[in-house]
Design a protein that fits this description.
By secondary structure, the chain is an alpha+beta fold. Helix content is about 25%, strand content about 40%. The chain contains 3 helices and 8 strands. A 5-stranded antiparallel β-sheet has the order 7-6-5-4-8. The protein has a 3-stranded mixed β-sheet with strand order 1-2-3. A hairpin with a 4-residue loop joins strand 6 and strand 7. Helix 1 packs across helix 2. The N and C termini lie far apart (about 45 Å). The model has no long low-confidence stretch (mean pLDDT about 95).
Length: about 160
């Protein structure tokens, strides 16, 4: 089974489990690391001010592990990991930008803009492939293709 296909099958298996525990699937990875295959399922809360707990990860892991054993969609032995995408969650698509509008973000650039390769500010929106940020001084529009990363800022 191709790697992409495995992640699609695992996504379908994981979705009802995630719903049961009131979490969303952020991403699923299946890859070889060293001599091991690793299946990583990243989960997050729908509310932006709520965070994934160890209990959330344990609940999804336990039930998903049992379901994967039952369905057996992966031929190789693998390590199953369930975690959150982290405090500095990446923003990758239009749905992410819509969801995190009004949040503080950090954007890494391939080429410096105004002398900096990192722009930080409030996400104002996303239009026609451009990330719109208010850095406190001005509104900046950055083509997503010109970014090395875009992530939710960690604010303490």
């Amino acid at each position: 089974m191709a790697k992409k296909k495995i992640t699609e099958v695992v996504w379908e298996i994981t979705e009802p489990i995630a719903k049961k525990y009131n979490v969303l699937i952020f991403d699923i990875e299946y890859k070889k690391e060293g001599s091991d295959y690793v299946l990583r399922v990243y989960i997050e809360k729908e509310a932006l001010d709520e965070y994934i707990s160890i209990t959330d990860c344990e609940n999804v892991h336990r039930e998903l592990s049992d379901k994967l054993d039952e369905v057996d969609p992966i031929e190789n032995q693998y390590i199953l990991e369930v975690s959150s995408p982290g405090l500095d969650r990446p923003l990758r698509n239009e749905a992410d930008f819509d969801r995190f509008k009004g949040c503080e973000i950090d954007v890494g650039l391939y080429k410096a803009l105004n002398g900096s390769k990192v722009i930080s500010g409030t996400l104002e929106g996303f239009e026609n492939g451009e990330i719109i940020i208010n850095d406190g001084k001005e509104i900046i529009r950055i083509n997503q293709k010109e970014t090395s990363y875009c992530k939710k800022a960690i604010i303490f």
